[in-house]
Design brief:
With about 475 residues, the chain is an alpha+beta fold. The chain has helices spanning about 15-25, 45-65, 80-85, 90, 110-120, 130-140, 185-195, 245-260, 310-320, 345-355, 385-400, 415-425, 435-440, 460-465, and strands spanning about 5, 25-30, 40-45, 70, 95-100, 105, 155-160, 165, 175, 205-210, 225-235, 270-275, 285-295, 295-310, 325, 335, 335-345, 355-360, 365, 375-380, 405-410, 430, 440-445, 450-455. Helix content is about 35%, strand content about 25%. The strands form seven sheets. A seven-stranded mixed sheet has the order 4-10-11-17-14-13-12, sandwiched between helices. The chain starts with a strand and ends with a helix. The structure holds glycyl-adenosine-5'-phosphate.
Length: about 475
């Protein structure tokens, strides 16, 4: 039987991933002992490693290794005027309906799209008004997916920003928001970055951190959650000196390369989709989404938008502070424009897990790029009841662990240990046997091919380092 990777819509791939993630400590349902909290998750001992490895890859590729980029870590709670200036207080809204019978609340666009999908057709509701959405629900007599009744409230808009209060008095003046995107922190810190560093346009600022949105929709596992790790870049340039279309294409290529090469995702599961006039945010001159073929269809993975100078202009107006940039050579003073690549690390992680899941030759394994895998290797003594094997294996484990995140396993037989490591994507299993004691080498088994080779114990560190490059 040859290698057969599953098609996205086959054999309940999503259910398999959700189950594997819970069973093996990647992702747990949020607050589970209290019955769970919709659209929230916890990242377990292996999940936190995978997520962190994806974050590190993003940070290294887009911030550390580029001479035209700097990093930032701004606050989650910013001055409330930031969100008025950015347009989020007025504009970060979804259209919602509530079933008057069972009180299920759902996004109107998702209700309509799901209904049409079930009937084998499709509809575009992008940019439709609340009245238009109401009309579609009524014309098609779309019933509540929970109780089956047809008894909806009118469609109404609600804001996705989470509100809270600063201080102990809950008054209008103390109202603040948890950030709905990391991007605004970059615009707010723009002047301080210019004043404190030697960056010259064109340059970008990258930021990684939690964002929060009051999502009421069905989340599809970690695809859409209440809180998520966003990785955003604002790339500032002079629109008179740089061709935005060329920059946009360069960013498109960069994102594609990152997903296919650094995250190891198959290009056939990716596509670019440009936003039409109705869908595109009013401040954007062009928006394209890099989409991944999730089991529930091609969906946005990474947004790329040309936001012009909209945000800097808004913050300049609301704060009264001059945010323009002065070219150090020509003395030209202007407001830079930005191109913004924005992605959620959790969504990248969902994609990486789905794409890596492989069933072949009676085995299940996560074909993760070694750099992303939680454990880089696992070390076993061939037999757990032979103290000399265990002692040598333990020495190797402890020595490798100083450099790499390595697992130890001496339970059950070798076959079971391979199975357990395959399922969590450990790329290499190292077995210490009786020959190891005499010849100073070990068996290294490759996760993807299940082939084995002998490697000198002294050379193990270099062997793993080369595989992780
Ligand atoms: N600054 C632009 C911005 O935030 P967005 O399309 O709303 O644009 C960018 O979000 C990316 O953040 C999305 O492509 C997605 O990867 C991720 N994202 C957005 N909302 C999310 C949510 N509720 N859960 C997980 N990831 C989310």
């Amino acid at each position: 039987m040859g290698t057969k990777s599953m098609k996205k819509d086959e054999n309940n791939l999503m259910e398999k991933i959700v189950s594997l993630c819970k069973r093996r400590g990647f992702v747990f349902p949020g607050s589970e002992i209290y019955g769970g909290l919709a659209n929230s998750y916890e990242y377990g001992p292996l999940g936190v490693e995978l997520k962190r490895n994806i974050q590190d890859e993003w940070w290294n590729v887009f911030v550390r290794r580029r001479i035209d980029m700097v990093g930032l870590d701004s606050s989650i709670i910013l001055h409330p005027k930031v969100w008025e200036a950015s347009g989020h207080v007025a504009g970060l809204v979804d259209a919602m309906v509530e079933c008057k019978s069972c009180h299920t609340r759902t996004r109107a666009d998702h209700l309509i799209e799901d209904h049409f999908e079930k009937t084998g057709s499709s509809i575009s509701v992008e940019g439709k008004s609340t009245e238009e959405l109401d009309a579609i629900i009524h014309e098609n007599k779309i019933k509540c997916p929970t109780c089956g009744k047809f008894d909806w409230t009118p469609v109404r808009k609600f804001n996705l920003l989470f509100e809270t209060n600063v201080g102990i008095v809950s008054e209008a003046q103390s109202k603040v928001y948890l950030r709905g995107e990391t991007a605004q922190g970059i615009f707010v810190a723009f002047k301080n970055i210019l004043d404190s560093t030697r960056v010259t346009v064109p340059f970008g600022v990258g930021q990684l951190g939690k964002s929060f949105r009051n999502e009421i929709t069905k989340g599809n596992f970690i695809f859409r959650t209440l809180e998520f790790e966003q990785a955003e870049i604002e790339y500032f340039f002079d629109p008179e000196a740089s061709d935005w279309k060329k920059l946009f294409e360069e960013w498109k290529m960069g994102l594609w390369k990152f997903v296919t090469e650094n995250l190891g995702v198959r290009g056939e599961n990716l596509r670019w989709r440009e936003h039409g006039d109705e869908e595109r945010s009013f401040y954007s001159k062009r928006t394209e989404d890099l989409e991944y073929q999730f089991p529930f269809g091609f969906k946005e993975l990474w947004g790329l938008a040309y936001r012009t100078d909209y945000d800097l202009k808004q913050h300049m107006q609301y704060s009264g502070i001059d945010l323009s940039y002065t070219d150090p050579v020509s003395g030209k003073k202007f407001l830079p424009h930005v191109i913004e690549p924005a992605v959620g690390i959790n969504r990248l992680m969902a994609m990486v897990l789905l794409d890596a899941y492989t069933e072949a030759d009676g085995r299940i394994f996560l074909k993760l790029p070694p750099r992303l895998a939680p454990y880089k290797a696992a070390v076993f003594p061939l037999l757990a009841n032979k103290p000399e094997l265990s002692a040598r294996a333990r020495e190797i484990y402890e020595s490798l662990r100083k450099k790499f995140f390595v697992a130890w396993d001496d339970r059950g037989n070798i076959g079971k240990r391979y199975y357990a490591q395959d399922e969590i994507g450990t790329p290499f299993c190292i077995t210490v046997d009786f020959d190891s004691l005499e010849k100073g080498d070990v068996t290294v088994r490759d996760r993807d091919t299940a082939t084995q080779e002998r490697v000198a114990i002294d050379g193990l560190e270099d062997y793993l380092a080369a595989k992780l490059r």
